[in-house]
Amino acid sequence: MGERRDHPQGPGATDNPGALEVEATVVLGIRVTDWPALRAAAVAAVEEFDFTGIDPASQRMELLREVSEDPHAALGALLHPDRLIGAVPGIEAIGGTLEISATEDFAPDFAELFPLDGEDGEPGDWTLTPRTACLLHTQLLALADAAYDDLDEHGDEPVADEDDQDWAIFARLPQASWGMHRSWRRAMARAFDDLAEDLGLGEWPLPRCPGEELALRLALADARALLGSQPQAVADLMGDLPADLYDYDWEGCSDELLGVYDLAGADSDEDSSARLDTLLSATHPEGWFLPYEEAEEREPGRGYRR
Questions:
Q1: CA 6 to chain CA centroid, nearest Å
Q2: Do residues 75 and 95 touch, judged by C-beta distance below 8 A?
Q3: CA distances from 290 to 170, 210, 285 (A)
Q4: At what angle do helices 250-257 and 272-282 cross, to 10 degrees?
């Protein structure tokens, strides 16, 4: 924090010659733990803002849309310098900027989130191990990033056989989805993030709809491929996470994480991969994000990362 005593002379000069101009720098590390609560607070804040210009109503509606979809925008509305200064008596704002960015160095503590019960090295019941959770989490976030990159580059453009190499994610999905619109593709990108968030909260990433099952199947395939092609990179990613006999048991992951919820008319003896293929082929892509009957619906207003 620094103090300045060289006050400007003119219309902007303070009426109190003994006042100080102070430049304050505040760096905050923030973790969003309740997106619906953050969103509600940001919406309430925007409702109180004064907008100037040609069309204040449109400005307010656009900002309301942004804070309802994006945690970064919601934080920006709540932490804006003018709003913060207005809550402190005896001072006035003379300028300031706000920068908000996602940190790259935060990672869940998978050893704490997925503790290993046995210490004697003897196998017990199957479990999602810290190392498997870490690698799955990494792949889900990478897939979400790639899906949003596809959106930025292609938007509503349909996937075609001749240019499928230009797509990172959506050309890998069943062809029935290749002509889907931008909003659908954002929902697919969010499916990867939703499953990654489950892992970040210490929960097994149990898909709650066909779209999430498809997302998890891609993540399992990519995790297996990365382990096979870049074992040292995976080892470096694991750091000091404890090792276990069930690490990287992809067959076990498929058995325990996919096909958890019963479907009416589904063959109980059919493996999860075949069942998912049957379900996807029999359902229009618009229905891929409808939750299974027994699954808990995700917060509908949770927004999107981008």
A1: 46
A2: no
A3: 19, 8, 10
A4: 50
Q: Which two tokens stand for residue 21?
A: 């101009």
Buried-state track 183-208, b at ≥16 Cβ within 10 A, e below 16: ebbbbbbbbbbbbbbbbbeeeebbbb
Instruction: Identify the band that residue 270 occupies on the pLDDT scale cut at 50, 70 and 90.
Output: low
Q: Are 260 and 207 in contact (CB under 8 A)?
A: yes
Quick check: 140 pLDDT over 80?
Answer: yes
**What backbone torsions phi and psi does residue 199 show, to the nearest 5 degrees?**
-65, -40
Instruction: Give the pLDDT confidence of 271-296 residue by residue, as tens digits.
Output: 777 888 888 889 999 999 999 988 99
List, for residues 229-246, the tens digit of each pLDDT value: 999 999 999 999 999 999
Q: Which residue has the tokens 């920006």?
A: 76
Q: In the structure encoding, which two tokens stand for residue 195, read together?
A: 């499953």
Distance (Å, rounded) from C-alpha 257 to C-alpha 265? 20
Which 3 state secondary structure label does DSSP give 22? Answer: strand
Distance CA 72, CA 80 (A): 12
* CB-based contacts of 199, cutoff 8 Å, min separation 6: 108, 110, 113, 133, 136, 137, 140, 205
Measured in residues, the chain has a length of: 306
